[in-house]
Amino acid sequence: MSEKKCQTIEEKQYLVRFNADTKSHLTVMDADICLTKCPDKICTIFCPAEVYKWEEIRMHVGYEGCHECGSCRIGCPHQNIKWEYPKGGHGIVFRLG
Amino acid sequence: MSEKFDCIVVGAGPAGISCAYELAKAGVNVLLIERGEYPGSKNVMGGVLYRKMMEDVIPDFWKEAPLERPIVEQRFMMMDKESAITFGYKGMEWGKEPYNNFTVLRAKFDQWFAGKAVEQGALLVNETVVLECIVENGKVVGVRTDRPDGDLYADVVVLADGVNSLLAKSLGFHKEFRPDEVALATMEIIKLDKKIIEDRFNLEENQGTTIELFGDATKGILGTGFLYTNKDTLSLGVGSLLSGLIKHKIKPYELLEYVKNHPMIRPYIAGGEPVEYLAHMIPEGGYKSMPKVAGNGVLVVGDAAQLVNAIHREGSNLAMTSGQLAAETVLLAKERDDYSESTLNHYKTRLMSSFVGQDMKKYKDSTHHFDKFPQYFDKYIPMMNKAASQMFTVDGSSKWEKQKKIWRDVGSAGEKIKLARDAYRAWKVMK
Asked: Is the ipTM of this complex over 0.90?
């Protein structure tokens, strides 16, 4: 590992155990806001698990890989994300840290 | 099912477990609710557990708790792109009883700690989310969970639900936090042979090091990185205010990779294998962001009450003390059979006169100050590095000449005045 080597977010997420619920605990409340009022789509940048991905005209929410940190709820410039905890026992399961 | 408890504690982290432990020990019928599969499964910290506040709850805990390493050395690195000024303290008194602090892995530690509360008689229920507090006549009387028929009642509810603090928010105890009131931290647990760790960090068995990283670790934006030694893993992480990540459009996992590949850090982790990746928020708004902490039938503890001393990277210890003081208050309320805000405010009084409240007050302006004036991280740290490089490079010029050059490099007279002013301001917010 002496040469510069960058691990991708996909590789990082692969190290984490998830027990995903069938239903998303993250909801974009008004899809129009992302499309028309949010040029930066900053959630796609600061989300530490790349849960939010912009797909041409809509926001894809990969809630299955969410770390439940809460940043998107606080960081969304339009307060457009409804954020709940996944159902008890579901979601991310940290084994170490 | 409408079960009634003396006390319900929401969240099995250091604050909630400490509170439940103390109450159970005093014979109170206490329910501890955890949303994860087990306590610790949702919990993240860099990894420093302070002995004193833990010992206040469980004396001699180090004899049986799952700890990683007692810390004998604390280092600080002021980093530029290809250099660092490092200072620190190492002392053998930290390597023996009663120790100063330890690295821990939270998934293991929190499970053990919660188990101790159960041994005292607390009832622990995992895999249960508290959706809201049940409020009747202006008083919290219980919690609504996501279980079928999941309403549970208690004389008093202690909110230890962590940094997101959704329950206190829904009670109107605080507004939604702003991006400059929370830090977002990411970290990796990196597996590395025990012997290699000890060689690289100049340690003997059962000794550990913590290194805090400033400056280029966060590309000059307000935040810190950390590198801590565990038994056979390293914890390497980086955190910065969410507002900083937003402003500079930084992807947190790319920042973490940047730190991993930094020439000052890379040799420490070389050959290591990442085994877990974790992200979590840290409440860093400080004293001014603290919510109301006591209401009718309810108390707020730990991260949920923003109890973090970001300057000294302390949090779990503040959490434990707040949990203990909440327990003490519940016992007082029980004795008086009065769970009104006026009785429960005893908690606030005790909290604010303890080291928790005092330290929160001491640093009340620090985060805001360093956030408002980014030059400390993006200008002065590189400047210090250049000055050190100048001074210690032997190139034939005299030391007087070197000093003159360093002084010249600070910039114009105006720049020098600015530097002096910033130094004074930093002292003022930290004193």
From this structure: yes
